[in-house]
Amino acid sequence: MKHMSSREFNHDIGKAKRAAEEGPLVITDRGKPAFVLLKHEEYQRLVGEEPSIVDLLRQDEPEADFDFEPPRLREIVRRETVFD
Q: Considering the entire predicted model, what is its pTM?
């Protein structure tokens, strides 16, 4: 597991993000572990977080190979309500 001081983190966040790509990055404060930076997917895996319906329906994933355009409300055929 890699370590980085909070001062180094503040000066080069890009370096911290690149290090977190490889695994959790421990950020120290005055020489003691204070925070851990990790990829969001890894965090979700650790906490067992279920994806939301929005995440499941997102089309920016490689396997999303369909187009969906819901009909506009004015294009939906309206039926009269009949009360007997």
A: 0.56
